[in-house]
Amino acid sequence: MDFTELEKGQAWLGIAMEGANDGFWGLDIPQNRIYYSGSFREYFDGDKSTMYIPFEFLKELVHPLDFGYFKDSVERYLKKEIPVFKVECRILAYSGSYEWVLVQGKGIWNENNEPLYLAGSYTLLKDFKNAANYHYDTEKRLKETSALLNTIFDSIPDPIYIKDTEDRIIKCNAAALSLWGFASEDIIGKRCTDIKMCHKPCRESITKKACQSKEITRVQKYIKQSEKWVDIMAYPVLDKDTNEVRLLIEHVKDITDLKKAEMILQENIKCQEKLLQEAERTNKIKTEYFANVSHELKTPLNIILSTLQLLEAFYLPSQKTSKYTNIMKQNCYRLLRLLNNIIDMTKIESGFFKLHLENADIVNVVKQITLSVEQYIKNKSINLIFESKIDQQIMAFDAEKIERIMLNLLSNSAKFTPPGGDIKVGIEGKAESILISVKDTGVGIPPKKQSLIFQRFGQVDSNATRQHEGSGIGLSLVKSLVEMHNGIIRFHSEEQKGTEFIIELPIKTVQKETKKTINNENNSYKKVEILNIELSDIYE
């Protein structure tokens, strides 16, 4: 075909295209441009002349939700993956609305099987009268469905918008417009960076992240215009054939109140940590102060006690003066007991108080401790009873600490048991532990005060017991010493009926050899001076 014949053929084709009811289009693949003409074009842009546009410009004409499918169909046909190119899609009309059209065509390939041209027609589906009624009904149903979906879409209280893979906003609901503070025409077709929604530009948008990962992506952002924090979830919609991202649905949740509460909480945590550090520092200073004062006070008390002992030994005070020296000695013992307890509690808190565990007969040790205080208890006209359901139990314990525990409990019972009452020390064996109990028939502990007795400086503050009040540190020390043996201590008490303390210690042994004999007469629980100190509250 020569050039003249080619021009003649193009002229005839132009006349046919202008006179046809359908619109005609052609894709010049090497030039990457599209032409379309005919009376049909007038319906869409008000002009009947032939128009040439770049292929990319189709994005402005084809509905965003249909463009991916349209483009994919063109590419698959040119690769000869599908035999026919025929697509129904929505195209932007001159009126500003989208109309459903049927686009179809055929292609031309060169001798190397490379595509050169793709041309065909596009037909407005709603103009079909008979055979096309199905398409018209389909369009009607689609419009009704679309209207329903739009109503639902706008009724969702959380902001939702749809984006293409280039991060352009295709559609958004009323809640999103309210959140961003823009009108629909201000953001449709634009990127987030174009309208500067966020306080700080994203290094990598959530849309790009979701497109790359093809997975649900989440990010929290601060919106400058509305001064709100939002949680954004991006859901990529994948093509079922190519598995490529076609568009993204992004859901926005206002978390401003939650974020404010979180920031307030973080600030409170920082304040609490600061207060805790300050409290720890203050407590450390107080502990060191008590320890230093306790050590300083022990020196003059020891001097006073030594002097009193010298007076009794060499100056043979009269009966009248001995009364006062005894009172002085008793109060010195009380002070020494308090100071010893404070020092021991300080050591326990600091981690310097260690147990010296040795294998011995716990039954015999508790019995000896009980017998050592028998005379002190009888002097107060109180009956002391020792009763054990087992004869012997070898186990690991610190004899000196057990002595401190028992003397504290016995002293406590004697203080609050009136003359004529009873104090019973009992021992009972279990499968893996041993129970030691100290039960009295004293005034008991009021229910409201029972939660305080193991607290340091906790006291049973009542008229019935005020005359016997101590520092309130003894039972706290007892609890700490029991727990150092991996044991537990509990009690039962009723007012005017008495109190029972129960210690449960695990039965275990240690491998090292015993360095001293528990029955040696020089042991601490037989030393009169120690008894005078530990029983100073009932010593007379």
Automatic annotation (TrEMBL):
<keyword id="KW-0418">Kinase</keyword>
<dbReference type="InterPro" id="IPR013655">
    <property type="entry name" value="PAS_fold_3"/>
</dbReference>
<dbReference type="GO" id="GO:0016301">
    <property type="term" value="F:kinase activity"/>
</dbReference>
<keyword id="KW-0597">Phosphoprotein</keyword>
<dbReference type="Pfam" id="PF02518">
    <property type="entry name" value="HATPase_c"/>
</dbReference>
<dbReference type="InterPro" id="IPR036890">
    <property type="entry name" value="HATPase_C_sf"/>
</dbReference>
<dbReference type="InterPro" id="IPR050736">
    <property type="entry name" value="Sensor_HK_Regulatory"/>
</dbReference>
<dbReference type="InterPro" id="IPR003594">
    <property type="entry name" value="HATPase_dom"/>
</dbReference>
<feature type="domain" description="PAS">
    <location>
        <begin position="145"/>
        <end position="190"/>
    </location>
</feature>
<dbReference type="InterPro" id="IPR000014">
    <property type="entry name" value="PAS"/>
</dbReference>
<dbReference type="InterPro" id="IPR036097">
    <property type="entry name" value="HisK_dim/P_sf"/>
</dbReference>
<dbReference type="InterPro" id="IPR035965">
    <property type="entry name" value="PAS-like_dom_sf"/>
</dbReference>
<feature type="domain" description="Histidine kinase">
    <location>
        <begin position="292"/>
        <end position="509"/>
    </location>
</feature>
<feature type="domain" description="PAC">
    <location>
        <begin position="212"/>
        <end position="267"/>
    </location>
</feature>
<dbReference type="Pfam" id="PF13426">
    <property type="entry name" value="PAS_9"/>
</dbReference>
<dbReference type="InterPro" id="IPR003661">
    <property type="entry name" value="HisK_dim/P_dom"/>
</dbReference>
<dbReference type="Pfam" id="PF00512">
    <property type="entry name" value="HisKA"/>
</dbReference>
<keyword id="KW-0808">Transferase</keyword>
<dbReference type="Pfam" id="PF08447">
    <property type="entry name" value="PAS_3"/>
</dbReference>
<keyword id="KW-0902">Two-component regulatory system</keyword>
<dbReference type="InterPro" id="IPR004358">
    <property type="entry name" value="Sig_transdc_His_kin-like_C"/>
</dbReference>
<dbReference type="InterPro" id="IPR000700">
    <property type="entry name" value="PAS-assoc_C"/>
</dbReference>
<protein>
    <recommendedName>
        <fullName>histidine kinase</fullName>
        <ecNumber>2.7.13.3</ecNumber>
    </recommendedName>
</protein>
<dbReference type="InterPro" id="IPR005467">
    <property type="entry name" value="His_kinase_dom"/>
</dbReference>
